[in-house]
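Cross-posting from the modeling subforum.

Setting up a comparison between two proteins and wanted a second pair of eyes on the formatting. Protein 1 (sequence, then structure tokens):
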Amino acid sequence: MSLLEKDPNAPEAWLGEMPITSRYTAGLAGEKFLRAIKDEGKILGSYCDHCGITYVPARQFCERCMDKLDETVDVGTEGEVHTFTLLFEDLDGTPREEPEIVAFISLGDGGLVHRLDEVELDDLDIGMPVQAVFKSKGEREGSILDIKYFKPVSS
């Protein structure tokens, strides 16, 4: 049976707790990326000397030439809005009182999908410069959510 075919004997639902014995990791480059956010309030990328590309978030290998990426660079905490959308429901399907703005923030040759705040929808533009707002150092846990949101760069 292929992975696309459903087992007719499989249970429809699993009730109770499911024992999990494995652990997901962010990998070596991801660990370095998240640790820099947590410990230093920095956003890191990986630079490919051969292709001249800075990957954000940082990664271990270049997707174009497959070279190992040993050079990590600080891409700064400012980027620009590449595109955005509005979320009208929470992850559990509950309607939100106010829509949340989520954007793809260009950083280096890549970027991050993250929340936008401190901006009115009417003032939001593609290409708008934004900056990361981090949780206080004592609140950071080593997650992408240590960046609370991005906000417009103050002029």
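Protein 2 (same layout):
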Amino acid sequence: MKLKHVALIMDGNGRWAKLRGLPRIEGHRNGVKRVNEIIDTAIEQRLKAVTFYTFSMENWQRPKAEINALMRLLRNFIKSEMHRLHKNNIIFRAVGDIKRLPSGVQSVLREFEDLTRHNTGLIVSSALSYGSRAEIVNALKKIVEMGVRAEDINEELLESCLYTAGIPDPDLIIRTSGEMRLSNFLLWQSAYSEFYFTDIHWPDFGRDEFIAAIKEYNGRERRFGALPAKD
């Protein structure tokens, strides 16, 4: 099946910095630089969507100074890159509990979404203040508030109430830095996703590594519970 959507768990910024005797924030700063490279490669590969796990619900437990630094990096990146990405016809989506983010970050996220709303190219999603369990609970609350009868609830309705409504499910989920778990990321959406794990830390994960993951995916056979195709 043709690859349409790749989701990325960008892990290892802190470990990358520690190996070099640098502050953790330098790992994050170098990690941000990779995002544009991955977006440009996704456009080149004619993908439909790419999603970055940027800041999880669990990340709110980190030291306040690190959180503040991450929020500044995020805001500065969007302000500096949104017009270039808009010219590349991307559609930006921020998915997650966005109201928990600082007001300045919320403002630039809305500006970016509004700027690219009518574009027709690659959907670039940033999962921010995101937790998949909370997303599913939130969707169920919406359904209850809508007054939907139990017998009328189905997968399509629930999907329409998720943060990711309108975005195709990921065909491939990539996680860097050697960890092999989803960490509360796209639990509903990843039901039939393929997974690719690499020991490379995120700041070192560039175009060549992304292409290698795509090539491995293209060599796999996705059956979705069916029997293999006959020769």
